[in-house]
Records
---
Amino acid sequence: MSDTAEQTGRHIERPEESEPLSDAEQRKRRRERRIAAYRGARQVLARPGFLGTLRERLALLDEARALDLHDLDETVDLYGDGIVGALEEKVAGLLGKEAAAFFPTGTMAQQVALRCWAGRTGNPTVALHALAHPEMHERDAFSQVSGLRPVHVTSEPRLPTADEVRDFDEPFGALMLELPLRDAGFVLPSWEELIEVVEAARERDAVVHFDGARLWESTVHFGRPLEEIAGLADSVYVSFYKSLDGFGGAVLAGPQTLVDEAKAWRHRYGGTVFQQFPTALSALAGLERELPRLPEYVAHARVVAAALRDGFAAAGVPWTRVHPEPPHTNEFQVWLPYDVDVVTEAALRQAEETKTVLFGHAWDAKGPGLACTEVSVRAAGLEWTADDVKTAVAEFVARLNEEVSK
C-alpha cells in the first residue's frame, strides 16, 4: 500500500512538542495507524497476508504441507531446481507456454524478458503505457539498468488502442501491455480490443509481452481461460503475491529458447537464489487456494462497488466515482470530492472506532479537493452484504462531515 498519497496531510502535533510533524513522519504514523486498524478490525474487505505476523505467515507453509502440494521428503532446492522447477512447470502449463523461469521479483523478470526480446528483434525500444508499472514504480529500471528505451503509446486511463499501436510514429521491438492496468483503475480492454491490439503490433513485426502481475483475475472480464488469454502474447509475467497471497516471487513464461536465455540473464542479475523453497511452496499454496476463488472475488467486487455508489448517494455526498463500473477485476478505484487529508482521517477514524475497515489503502490527491483510493475485495469481503457496505458508507460519511466541519 503506497503512502505517497499522504504527503498533503494536515500536521499532527506531538503530545510533548508544539512543532508539527514532518510530512514523512505524518505518512509513517498514518501507515502505522492503518496497519494497526487492519490488525484489530473485525470486518474488512480484504485481509492481505503481508500485513500478518511472522507466525501467521509461517502458518501458510503448514497449510501448504497439509494440502500435500509437493513431496516434502525431497531434497531442498539449490539454485532453482527441485520445488522451484516444479513450480515453473506448473505455471507454464497453466499459461499454455513451453517453459517458465522463476524470478525473485517481477521487476527483474520483465527487464530480462524485454532485453532478451531486444536481442532477437534488434530493437531495444519498448512501447508501453505511460502508467505502466515500469514507468511509475521502478525508478526507470528499463533505461538505467537494462539498456531498453521505453516509449509511451498513450497516457489515457485505458489500454492502448489498435490504431494507436498501428500508427505510432517510430519503430519498436516489443509492445508491453499491463493487464489489468493498475494505475488507471485496474482496467482491461475488451477481448476483441485486445486481439486487435496484438494483431496491430504483429503487423509492425513487434513481439508482444504481457505484464500479467494480476492476470490471474482477468478471466471473468475476458470470459476466457488463462491459457487462451496468455496465448495471445509471446511472453507473459505473473506474480505470486499480488493476487495469490504468496511470500513473493514471479514467473516469466514463453518459448523454451527465450526462457533458457532468461535463466542465463537471471544469473547475471543476481536472481538465481541459493534456496527459495518457502517462497515456491507459498506460491503453490496460492495457486491451490486462491486461484480458484478469484472469479468469486471479482463477482463480489461488483456487488461492493454498486453498494458503495448507492451508499454515497443515499448519504448525500455531492459527487462520487467508482472506476471502472462495474469493476473489471476484484480491485477498483473510488474517487471523492474532498481533500486527501480529510478522507484519510475519516477512514482511519472509522477503522479505529468501529473496527470496520471500508477504505484500507492510502488516498491519493488527484487535484485540489479531489481524492482517490483503491478498494480490494478478497475472501474476507465475501462476508459483506450490500447492506453492510451501505452501513459502512454511512458511518464513513458521518466522520467525513465531522472532519470537514473542523
---
Amino acid sequence: MAPSSYQAPSRGDKTDKKTHSQSVESNLSHSLTTVSRLLEGKGDAVFSLRPNDTISHAVQILKDKHIGALVVTDQNGKLQGILSERDIVRRMAETPGQTLPQEVAALMTSDVMTCAPDDALMDVLKRMTEGRFRHMPVIVDDNLCGMITIGDVVNFRLKELEYEALRMKQMIVG
C-alpha cells in the first residue's frame, strides 16, 4: 500500500524533463581553470638574476625570498634559463667546496618549459609531473609575466575542491 501522500504520475506531468545533479561541464570544470586564474590570487612577482651572477648570489636570493627557483634573464628581461635548488645541490655533489663562486650560466637549465596564462591548469600540472620539475615560468609574447610552482597548482586545486564540497553540502542541507 502506498503512503497517503503519494500521487501516481498523471498524463499532464512533465516526465520527459530530467534534472541532473552532475553534468560533464560541472565534472570537468576544474580542467578549464587556467594559469591566469591562479596568478590572479598569487600575483606576478618573479625573482630573477643574470647568467654571469654567482651561485653564491643565487643562493642568497633563494634563502632571503624563501623560494626554490630563480629565472635567469638577459638585460632586457628575456628568459635565458632557470636555476633551481636542485640544480645547485647536484653541482655541489659534483664540485664540493667549489660551487658557490661558479656562474649561474654554468648550472642553469637553458631549455625551459614555459606556459601561457590561458593554458589549462591541469595540463600544466601534467607537464610538470611528467617532466619532473616544480617551477614553470609564465610567458606572454616572449615576456615573463609570472612563475608558478607545482605547490601553487596543488594548493589552488585543493581550494577548488573544498569550495565544491561546500557547495554540495549546502545543496544537500539546503
---
Amino acid sequence: MESIDVDATDLRLLDQLQRDASLSNQALAERVHISPPTCLRRIKRLMEAGFIERQVAILNTEKLAPTLGYGLTAIVEITLDRQGADLLEAFEARVAADQAVQQCYRVSPGPDFCLVVFARDMPDYLALAQRLFTSDANVRNVKAFFSLKRSKFEPGIPLQA
C-alpha cells in the first residue's frame, strides 16, 4: 500500500462514504463538489492506500427478527491468566476468526479483551462460551453483559475536513 497525503476533499469523500456507501459516483461527486472522474480516481486511491477497509450493509435487526429471531448481543470482558505477547495474539486470532464475534478489542487497564458477540439464543451463547472461553486453559475470567436494547449504533469515525 502506498502512503498518501489526505486532504480536505478526501476527508469529505470518506465522510460521505461512511454515511452511505451505496451512493453512485455521480451523487458522491455532487455532494463533495468535484467532478465524477476526480471522485472515482480519489476513491480508488483511498481504497488502494487502505483508508477504506471494505464496504458493507448494516442490517436492521428489528426488521430481521421475525425471520431470524432477536438473538442475543453480549459485551464480554475476558481476562487471561498469562499475558505474554504470543498468548495474547493466539487468543485474539482465535476469537477474531469466530463468526459470532462481531468486534474484538484488546484493552487496558482491567480485562485483557472486550468482545461484542452475537448468538441466536442462550444455548447458542453457551456453545460459544464453551468454544471460545471455557475450553481455553489460559482464560481466567469471563464477564458477559447482555444487551436489552440498542440505543445507538454508529460505526462512523468523526471526520473534520
---
Amino acid sequence: MPRGEKDKYTDKQKRKAEHIEQSYEAKGVSKDEAEARAWATVNKQSGGGERKGGSGQQKSPAAKAKARESSARRAVATKHGVPRSRQQLEDMTKAELMDRARKRHIAGRSTMRKGELIEALRKVA
C-alpha cells in the first residue's frame, strides 16, 4: 500500500496513477501491489507531487543581479591576477569570509549569514 497523502499531486498525475493501476490489475497483480507500483511509476517519471521550487531560500531579482555582478568582478580579478586579500569583502564568497572570520577568532561566525560576516570582519579590521 502506498504511503503518504496524495493531495500534493496534480490531477494529471492522479489520472496517470489510476490508469497504470488498472493496467496492472488487468495483468493479475493484487490491488495493493498495483497501487504501489502505479505511484512508484508516477514518482519516477515526474519526481512526485507538486513542490515549490528550490531549497526554501528564494533570492529576489535584485539579489540575483548583485550576485552575478559580484561573480563577474571576482572572475575579472582572478584573470588579472589580483590577490584575494586585496579584494573587497563583498566580492568574496561566504566560504572565504568564514575562513577570514576563523583566522580572526570571530565568535558566532558559524551561524552568521554573508552580510553578518562582512559586518563582523569590518568591525575587527
